[in-house]
Specification:
single chain, alpha/beta, Quinone Oxidoreductase, Chain A, domain 1, Rossmann fold, 2 domains, 6-stranded parallel beta sheet, binds NADP nicotinamide-adenine-dinucleotide phosphate
Length: about 300
């Protein structure tokens, strides 16, 4: 099969022929139709400890092409999507266990397209986990930094669906996009400093998708006492925030209850009911998968990039 693979440390990846994975008794072999691009894909590629060779990618949508003899929930020909962390997804085939806590999968309903399904898993489940962790409900004053990226675009929509009051930051040219997702008050990070602009605000919950450990501390001045903050990049000094009566969490989506079959079903329901939508930033053929990864690494993708695979 063709796959985007990294064979040597420091390589960005090349598309080449490799052996397709073979299903064991509990495995589902999937012909990948579309693969979502996430920052974790290039972060894992760039980590010196990642085992090689590495087929890039973890989010997929595709068609079941074979199942192990112990598999009961999926059948050949069914459309499924989810997360395949061990075998990679920028490839014509991937392999996932039928039931694996770390690699949730689910069937795709007929009214959800392949690109939309492939874009959802990692960013959507992370957004769902963050919004739950922050206990966002009707009227919650919520700040989302990075509101128009993969996680941010889903998080804003899920929070809007719950009736939150949303302050969101993004590049100034993305103001109308941010507002269309559900941002009520917009902060252009390239023109003004969010912590400065919002000083003295009464934010109850903050989702920081971008700031480093110094940057995130500056948000203490905008969050109310008893408030909550989540970082998805491990930037929150939990003890430091606790002394300011703010509950901080470094969220690892894979450790949340939302990273599950049930979490995928919740996202599908939101999509099917038109309560969230996927913003597809672009679709690229497998031959351009490595370029797509560089695009993601540049940090200027609005919504989700998807790789389509013949
Ligand atoms: N811990 C976990 O389990 C977990 C799970 C998922 C993701 N993550 C991490 O969370 C981060 C976000 O993921 P993602 O998929 O949303 O990434 P993404 O799609 O690349 O989006 C990042 C967004 O941040 C915006 N941005 C950059 N600098 C900003 C700033 N100073 N203020 C406000 N916005 C800014 C970018 O907008 P512009 O284009 O306008 O610059 C971009 O839209 C990544 O580092 C990812 O690895 C962690």
């Amino acid at each position: 099969m063709k796959a985007a693979v990294v064979e040597h440390r420091g390589q960005s990846g090349t598309v080449k022929e490799v052996a397709a994975p073979q299903p064991g008794p509990h495995d589902v072999l999937v012909r990948v139709v579309a693969a979502g691009v996430n920052p974790i894909d290039w972060k894992r590629r760039d980590r010196p400890e990642s085992p090689l060779p590495l087929v890039l990618g973890q989010d997929f949508a595709g068609i079941v092409s074979d199942v192990g003899d112990r598999v009961t929930k999926y059948r050949k020909g069914e459309r499924i999507f989810g997360i395949s962390r061990e075998h990679g997804t920028y490839a014509q085939y991937t392999l996932v266990p039928e039931d694996d806590r770390a690699q949730p999968i689910a069937k795709i309903p007929d009214d959800v397209g392949d690109a939309d399904a492939a874009a959802l898993p990692t960013a959507g489940l992370t957004a769902l986990g963050a919004i739950e962790t922050l206990s966002v409900s009707k009227g919650t004053p919520l700040l989302v930094l990075g509101a128009t990226g993969g996680v941010g675009s889903y998080a804003v929509q899920i929070a809007r669906d719950r009736g939150a009051q949303i302050v969101g930051s993004a590049r100034s040219s993305n103001e109308s996009l941010a507002r269309s997702l559900g941002v009520d008050k917009f902060v252009a990070y390239d023109k003004e400093d969010a912590a400065e602009r919002l000083r003295g605000s009464d934010i109850e919950a903050a989702l920081d998708l971008v700031d480093d450990s110094d940057g995130i501390k500056r948000l203490a001045g905008v969050i109310r006492e008893g408030g909550r903050i989540v970082s998805t990049i491990g930037a929150a000094d939990v003890g430091w925030f606790a002394t300011r009566k703010i509950a901080a969490t470094n969220l690892y989506a894979v450790d949340t209850p939302q990273w599950s079959h049930a979490g995928l079903r919740t996202l599908l329901e939101l999509v099917e009911q038109g309560r969230i939508r996927t913003m597809i930033a672009g679709e690229r053929p497998l031959a351009e998968a490595v370029d797509a990864l560089e695009e993601s690494k540049s940090g200027s993708v609005d919504g989700k990039l998807v790789i389509t695979i013949d």
